[in-house]
Design goal:
By secondary structure, this protein is mainly beta. The chain has one domain (6-54). 14% of the residues lie in helices and 36% in strands. It contains one helix and five strands. The strands form two sheets. A three-stranded antiparallel β-sheet has the order 4-3-5, with helices on one face. A hairpin with a 7-residue loop joins strand 3 (17-22) and strand 4. The longest helix has 8 residues, at 34-41. It starts with 5 loop residues before the first strand and ends with a strand.
């Protein structure tokens, strides 16, 4: 059975793993791919990790 892919909420790339994060002062939660997660978390005072979604 193929793994379920979901789009990154920032770049729309389909991913099997997405990270739930906050990255700005709106405190909105985003599900982002590993590449966006790496870029948004680096040296970001608003960054907050909220868990990992994995395709099954």
């Amino acid at each position: 059975m193929p793994k379920k892919l979901k789009p990154c909420e920032k770049c729309q790339t389909l991913a099997t793993i997405r990270y739930r994060i906050q990255h700005d002062d709106t405190q909105k939660w985003w599900l982002v791919c590993p590449l966006c997660w790496e870029q948004l978390s680096k040296d970001n005072p608003y960054y907050r990790y909220g868990g990992t979604w994995k395709a099954k």
